[in-house]
Specification:
Blueprint lengths: L14 E2 H27 L9 H28 E4 L2 E4 L7 H22 L3 H26 L7 H29 L5 H27 L3 H7 L7 H33 L5 H10 L1
Antiparallel strand pairs: 1-3, 2-3
Helix pairs in contact: 1-2, 1-8, 2-3, 2-8, 3-4, 3-8, 4-5, 5-6, 6-8
The structure holds retinal.
Retinal (RET) binds next to α3, α4, α5, α6 and α8.
């Protein structure tokens, strides 16, 4: 059932040695970044006030889940290709795009929990905001997946349609977060305001990379290459690299910002162990 021809999982276009290795190395680097970030978030818990410790735990879980999935994604990538006649060609085992969507469906709602947790809103307000964000995030990811696994040029318009549908909850999330973060600014401690403004921007920019990577991997050329046609397959590479870099920034990078906000709101609470991490983080 899970073969390339059924369309359940993406087929593998032929790649040059360089193209194959760029993707393989970025996956490897992503595993390292996520793992390192997980250590940092778990070990830094003592440096924020108790109310923000659950937020750091959630940040640590997000990057741990991503670390595992990137390990599996890389494993799947290596299993999908073999070296032959100076190029990398498909082994017949399809690359498993599902790992990434499985990762997002877990980590994106948790990222929302991180952000809402560090905003310290009124309880009822936080609950309604989180409910809306989590539902929209699930819809965005569920609507993107059917388009992601389309791997023939004939499927181009369907892929665009799923992308557009997925973009509706996507814009909704960005709009809601922008507005809520902006509205919360006056009630935030001065020390945290600047960081929240930065977080607002980082969120917007890193999240914008996802639909762009999706589009680059869904051009008629990229889909033709996926279907086995002998055309330029750089779109397929751009998609993998784009998603991986966006994931590092949106999970580890964003988690660091959330940590800085939590620190800024924790006031001068420094223990011996804490000082080491504070020194590292600043
Ligand atoms: C840690 C993972 C994160 C923050 C993932 C975010 C994913 C998106 C913002 C995906 C968005 C998409 C669209 C807006 C349209 C095309 C399909 C998607 C799912 C790639």
């Amino acid at each position: 059932m899970f073969d390339a021809t059924s369309g359940m999982l993406a087929a593998m276009p032929q790649l040059s040695v360089f193209q194959y290795n760029v993707v393989d190395n970025i996956f490897s680097m992503t595993v390292a970044c996520m793992g390192a970030a997980a250590l940092f978030f778990f070990l830094s818990k003592g440096t924020v006030s108790p109310q923000f410790r659950p937020v750091l735990t959630v940040s640590g879980i997000v990057v741990s889940v991503a670390c595992y999935h990137y390990f599996m994604i890389r494993h799947s990538w290596q299993g999908a290709y073999s070296f032959a006649d100076g190029n990398y060609i498909g082994t017949g085992t399809a690359f498993n795009d599902f790992y990434r969507y499985a990762d997002w469906i877990i980590t994106v709602p948790l990222l929302m929990v991180e952000l809402v947790g560090v905003m310290t809103l009124e309880r009822s307000k936080a609950k309604s905001l989180l409910t809306r964000l989590v539902i929209a995030a699930a819809a965005m990811i569920a609507l993107g997946y059917p388009g992601e696994v389309i791997s023939t040029p004939e499927g181009w318009s369907m892929r665009v349609m799923w992308g557009v549908l997925s973009s509706i909850p996507f814009f909704y999330i960005l709009y809601v977060l922008w507005v809520e973060l902006t509205n919360s600014l006056p009630s935030q401690p001065v020390a945290a305001r600047r960081l929240i403004e930065v977080a607002r921007l980082v969120l917007l920019v890193t999240w914008a990379v996802y639909p762009i990577a999706y589009a680059l991997g869904g051009t008629v050329d990229a889909l033709t290459a996926k279907a086995g046609g002998n055309v330029d397959s750089s779109g397929v590479v751009a998609l993998q690299v784009g998603y991986a870099i966006a994931d590092i920034l949106a999970k580890a990078g964003f988690g660091l910002l959330v940590y800085s906000i939590a620190r800024a709101k924790s006031g001068p609470l420094v223990e011996n162990v804490g000082e080491v991490f504070v020194a590292v983080a600043h």
